[in-house]
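Consider the tokenized backbone below.
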């Protein structure tokens, strides 16, 4: 890559001033600086997300248990709700949340 001497830099500076005009040059430089800051910020955010993803992938996956503990039937333990009861409860909560969300949008 060729080295730029002072003469070449002056010529480039004059061309930039001619293209943008002396009045718009500070605004153009400010916009360029803001664009560079935004680009660096987004690049940093992407790198952090990639690091988080690699850390999450590097964590060992727990091995499934060799033998499951014996389960107690729902009828024997009335304090434990059945799958159907839990599903019904979740559906009711979901309906309440959707109704609340619809009220907020209206």
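A designed sequence for it:
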């Amino acid at each position: 890559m060729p080295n730029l001497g002072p003469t070449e830099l002056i010529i480039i500076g004059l061309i930039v001033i001619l293209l943008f005009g002396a009045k718009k040059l500070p605004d153009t430089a400010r916009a360029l600086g803001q664009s560079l800051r935004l680009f660096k910020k987004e690049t940093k955010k992407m790198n952090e997300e990639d690091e988080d993803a690699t850390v999450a992938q590097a964590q060992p996956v727990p091995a499934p248990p060799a033998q499951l503990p014996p389960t107690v039937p729902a009828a024997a333990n009335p304090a434990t709700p059945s799958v159907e009861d839990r599903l019904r409860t979740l559906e009711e909560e979901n309906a309440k949340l959707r109704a609340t969300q619809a009220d907020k949008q209206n």
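The mean pLDDT is 79.
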